[in-house]
Write a structure and sequence with these properties.
The strands form six sheets. Strands 1, 2, 5, 6, 7, 8, 9, 10 and 11 form a nine-stranded mixed beta sheet that branches. By secondary structure, the protein is an alpha+beta fold. The chain binds 3-[3-(1H-pyrrolo[2,3-b]pyridin-5-yl)phenyl]propanoic acid. 3-[3-(1H-pyrrolo[2,3-b]pyridin-5-yl)phenyl]propanoic acid binds next to α3 and β9.
């Protein structure tokens, strides 16, 4: 440590800033931030793939919650960096936003959360090993909490089939991330997405903890993505796929209608999912509405009618991927594209290509126009229904009979528990604090909102009870100010059915009361899975791991005398005191706030679930029940 130069100190200071305020660089230090570290490294590898130097990216989760990302790109440069007098790799790893001279990345992502630089991953790791194969040589360096633990070493070359690229293994620092662990299903979704967006690049995930391996490789790109979205649905025509470039903005779009009534537009900017949409999406929507109207008019299928945006997007599945140099990300979660020039570019590209497709494929064109026409007619019925919502005569002025309301008058203090099933509803009624907690039992599966239009959604008793209880309208008429509760808490069983109903409700809120979610009024209650009683001491476990820990802590085993263990299969198995203690008492309960992203994720999961066939849906829920349950963990 004797002869540090001023430059070295600068470098260290930079990464200290990252460790001091990690959320500024990766969003948060929960599970989301943790997974973000992996995305950051993978993004670097994908950048190599984008410019044609890499076609394989392997990710591995290790037993100790460390992660390896290995690619066959060019390998991080190792030659001396003049300004810092250090090997370039060390600059990349220890200097915030290193790039500068050798930052020849084509589509740098500014703003948003990606593209903060691999040095951020290094700063937030207990240790990080980098191995580089470049020019027939092999190099290695280790860092600890962002600082080099040794200087860059040349290793003996190995003939192991990996001749070129970068391998980064890092262990996220528990001082920063606590005990959050990597979730293979979360990483899988992102790798799958990247595989769709970067056709021909093979991305794989191996989970050492379970021995499972998954490989994602799609030759079809956007077309494969579309096929995946529509895989359990009945599609109405061949996919419409086009790709073009204007003013340095690359646009790739896939469109295919299915026989459902909902729209599913998935949009990306430089491979980052834009959950909140933005200018690329508005350009696309404008073009779609305009072209379909123009085509319908030209062929005289529309007569005097005109189609509006909602009509032409009913049953629409679309993927929009744009790539540009300096994206501006806006919005609550920084997932909304703000560059206004992009709207016109996407709009004109979509107009040209869609117009051509319709003229070259008149049968498909006819199917699409007729689908939109049918939507326009149904829109009348829906408008009628909305009208009734506004007039309030549809939802009788009285509150639903099933609702057990609370006495508090101030909405900011009132809570609504939505409870699955009448019997659990009964327990919750006994358990609650009547002053501020209301209970609304929801029976069975509420209407499948994916398939239904608003007019039909409003015919569902369960949904009407929910809308009336909340008192703030629905859809376009939703008015947050009128909401009768400040916390809406979804309480369902910790099993597959419970996960399903939770996903349904979240999807419903996401689609019809989005503001309720974006302003953080929706929560998920997490009832415990086990009760462990030893003498006078009662403990609750919310996961199998926690259960094992408690047994260890209390130094007991299942079946020990004087030990009572209960495994809760449903809410109904808890007595009111237990339910109050674990799930309802604000001082001791475990509830989770739902973010807009969580709800969007539920919507996405739901989209994949839906379709006429029940089997794939069941299978999916079984595979993903944990994921759905652990939203936001
Ligand atoms: C800086 C410059 C170049 C490549 C990379 C970094 C790079 C970083 C990572 C991280 C994971 N895999 C990576 N692959 C490459 C440009 C290299 C050149 O010009 O030769």
């Amino acid at each position: 440590m004797e002869s540090y130069s001023a430059k070295d100190i600068q470098v260290l200071k930079d990464l200290t800033a990252v460790r001091k305020r990690p959320a500024m660089y990766i969003g948060d230090t929960s599970s989301k931030g943790l997974h973000h570290l992996v995305y950051e490294v993978i993004d670097n590898s994908v950048d190599e793939a984008l410019i044609g130097y890499c076609n394989t990216i392997e990710v591995e989760i290790h037993e100790d919650n460390s992660i390896t990302v290995r690619d066959n790109g060019r390998g991080i440069p190792v030659d001396l960096h003049e300004e810092y007098n250090l090997p370039a790799v060390e600059v990349v790893m220890t200097k915030l936003h290193a790039g500068g001279k050798f930052d020849n990345k084509v589509y740098k992502v500014s703003g948003g959360l990606h593209g903060v630089g691999i040095s951020v991953v290094n700063a937030l790791s207990e240790w990080l090993d980098v191995e580089i194969r470049r020019n027939g040589k092999s190099y290695y360096q280790r860092y600890e909490r962002g600082k080099p633990a040794c200087s860059l070493k040349e290793l003996d070359t190995e003939n192991d089939g990996w001749s070129r690229g970068t391998k980064v293994t890092f262990k996220p620092d528990t001082h920063i991330f606590g005990n959050y662990e990597f979730d293979a299903s979360i990483l899988s979704s992102r790798l799958r997405e990247l595989a769709f967006l970067n056709p021909g690049v093979k991305l794989s995930l191996r989970d050492e903890r379970t021995g499972k391996e998954r490989v994602f490789l799609y030759g079809g790109g956007i077309a494969s993505f579309l096929e995946y979205i529509n895989r359990d649905k009945k599609v109405l025509h061949q996919p419409i796929i086009f790709k073009d470039e204007k003013e340095d903005v690359k646009v790739e779009i896939g469109i295919q209608y299915n026989d459902s009534y909902t729209e599913n537009i998935f949009s990306f900017v430089n491979n980052v999912k834009t959950v909140e949409g933005g200018k690329h999406v508005s350009g696309f929507k404008a073009a779609l509405t305009r072209v379909l109207n123009e085509y319908g008019k030209a062929k005289n299928t529309l007569k005097k009618l005109s189609l509006d945006g909602d009509d032409v997007r009913e049953g629409l599945a679309a993927v929009i991927s744009v790539k540009l140099r300096e994206p501006q990300f806006e919005g609550q979660t920084k997932t909304k594209l703000g560059n206004s020039e992009v709207k016109g570019i996407v709009e004109s590209i979509t107009r040209e290509h869609l117009w051509d497709f319709l003229n070259e494929n008149p049968r498909d064109a006819d199917t699409i126009i007729r689908k939109a026409l049918e939507a326009a007619r149904a829109r009348e019925a829906a408008r009628h229904a909305r009208e009734m919502v506004r007039k309030k005569d549809f939802f009788a002025d009285s509150l639903p009979g099933k609702l057990a309301d609370c006495s508090e008058r101030d909405p900011s203090k009132r809570e609504l528990y939505i409870v699955e099933g009448d019997s659990a509803g009964g327990s919750a009624k006994q358990a609650r604090d009547k002053n501020f907690q209301a209970i609304l039992p929801i029976r069975g599966k509420i209407l499948n909102v994916e398939k239904a239009r608003l007019d039909r959604v409003l015919k569902s008793n369960e949904i009407r009870a929910l809308v009336t209880a909340l008192g703030a309208g629905i859809g376009d008429e939703f008015d947050l100010q009128k909401t009768r509760y400040s916390r809406i808490i979804i309480m369902s069983d910790a099993d597959v059915d419970g996960a399903h109903i939770r996903t349904l409700l979240l999807t419903f809120f996401y689609r019809y009361m989005q503001e309720l979610v974006s302003t953080n009024h929706v929560y998920i209650a997490l009832p415990p899975l086990y009760m462990v009683k030893k003498g006078k001491e009662t403990r609750y476990a919310f996961s199998d791991e926690e259960y094992a820990e408690i047994l260890k802590e209390l130094n007991i085993k299942e079946g020990d005398p004087g030990v009572k263990i209960q495994r809760y299969k449903g809410l109904g198995e808890m007595n009111p005191e237990q339910l109050w203690e674990t799930t309802m008492n604000p001082r001791t309960r475990c509830i989770k706030r739902v973010t807009l992203e969580d709800a969007a994720e539920a919507d996405w999961i739901f989209t994949v679930l839906m379709g006429e066939e029940v089997e794939p849906r069941k299978k999916f829920i079984q595979e993903h029940a944990r994921e759905v349950m652990n939203l936001d963990i």
